[in-house]
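Example record

Each entry pairs one chain with its bound ligand, FE2/S2 (inorganic) cluster.
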Amino acid sequence: MPPCRCTHSKGPMSETHAARLSEENLRRIEELKKRYPHPQAVVLEALWMWQGEHGWISEDGMRYIAHLLGIPDHHVFGVVSFYSMFNRQPVGRHKLEVCTNVSCMLRNSEKILKHIEQRLAIKVGETTSDRRFTLVEAECLGSCGTAPAMQVGDRYYENLDPQKVDAILEGLK
Ligand code: FES
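Structure tokens for the complex follow.
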């Protein structure tokens, strides 16, 4: 067990964190830690595993990861707040990330965003009541040549128009 640097507790991990990672992911983290001189190098992978299991990363989850790696809580909090791929609140089954950066904006991403808002009856940052979709704005997705673009999970959708968006949403169960 790594030394605990949690700011809220010095007790054993099992007593301080209700949710935890699966045994399989804990084993993977131990393997990864052996590859680097400092466990801090594993923080992205560990957070990604956490999000894969829990869907989002609560403050308790961040403390758990810090505890697991034996690194300060504030380092993990900083990483989570820096990367938009990490969800800091519960999200729907499909997170719709619509790029509204310059190239997409010039190619009507605002219209795409409004179309989704109207179709799903939610605003940016909200989740549908059936918890199927969450809509967020994204910074440049690196797909400027095929703007406007949207990312859903690990898939990209490009050259969007309202009809394409409707077909995509219908295909996401
Ligand atoms: S500006 Fe939207 S993908 Fe680059």
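The mean pLDDT is 91.
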